[in-house]
Amino acid sequence: MDADFDKDHQGHPQDERDARVSACLSALLDRHGVAIRHQATEIAHICAISVSQARRKLRGAVWLFDEVQAICQYFGESIDAVLAAGTPAGRAPAVSSHARPVSTYPATLLMDGQRLPCDIELGALCTTDTASSCPSLVAYHHPQEGWLVTVQARWQKEAATGACYAVAQLQWRNQGEQTRARIAVLDDDVGSADALTDWFNEVGYDAQAYTRPEDLLALPLAHHDAFVVDLILAGGQTSQALVERIRREQPDAPIVLLTGQLRGGAASEATLATILRTQGVTFFEKPVRPAVLTAAIQSGLDRLRHQHD
After folding, report:
1. Residue 30 parent element (H or E)
2. How far apart are CA 229 and CA 305, in angstroms?
3. For labelling alongside 65, which of 15, 44, 122, 138 has CA 20 to 30 A away?
């Protein structure tokens, strides 16, 4: 049966249902030792879909019943039991005031301008009625960044949407996990952005795909250690202004510029030459081999590390 997954979900809008299923399946994989960065690959293998499709489903795209059933059967759990770990109002797992989830979740602690990787166990759901009784440290799920931990006052000030939970337990990540380089991939072609991101994640980086400059700029640029940017974005605009801003805020970060539109004339050689001359970027013409691109980025990161040693 290839119908959209809607079991026991008749009372909720489709996007909320799919987001809930995504959260439940992510928690299922986490319980069975599948790290967040490998979950899309695992789902792609089980469901016989592409990694890019799996990644979109984990972000809240439509699930088919057969896909959900296949994943649950693969790990030997029932659909009802898996869905019991979810909440109907977003990607966060449901946590009552009397129970805690069975697993911990990778998260980022926002503290004094720093972003510190950690693992958290979620406590009670904080609602308007119970906010005063919740501890100062709370967690909420960001659609792009995953679980974020901050003080309740900051969460309320930023008017974050979705569920907010008390943090029952927080554990720092070990040093090896903290040193994974973070790479931003900006390409208006979703398939290209996801393919590069999947490659970087598979070879040990922490990569995030973006298709619009404003999505990348919604986060502090310091959140990323390196950048892969397409020269020509949607609507024919160039990424020159974005590259210049990245360079101002991240003077030493490796920046790799890509384009496949030089020969057709859509990309200006003069614009490219200006960026290369003034912004200290590396350039590759598409199609580029991911291994070559990775080597260029790692070389830049190594030079930066030696400068700081």
Report:
1. helix 14-31
2. 22
3. 122
* Residues 24, 85: Cα–Cα separation, whole Å: 6
Q: What letter would DSSP give residue 210?
A: E
Cβ–Cβ < 8 Å for 149, 108: yes
pLDDT at 95: 33
**Whether 114 contacts 130, CB under 8 Å:** no
Give the distance, in angstroms, between the CA of residue 307 and the centroid of all CA atoms in the same chain.
29
Q: Looking at the domain covering 180-308, what would its CATH class be?
A: alpha beta
| Least confident stretch, 67-71, 96-100, 101-105 | 96-100
Q: For 252-307, what is each residue's pLDDT tens digit?
A: 999 999 988 776 666 678 888 999 999 999 999 888 888 889 999 999 988 887 76
CB 66 within 8 A of CB 2: yes
Element (H, E) at 105: strand 105-111
| Cα distance from N-terminal residue to C-terminal residue, the chain | 58
Name the fold adopted by 14-83. Answer: 434 Repressor (Amino-terminal Domain) (1.10.260)
Helix residue ranges per DSSP H, 105-189 = 152-157, 175-178
* Residue among 279, 203, 273 nearest 243 (CA): 279
39-47 helix and 190-202 helix, angle to the nearest 10 degrees = 110
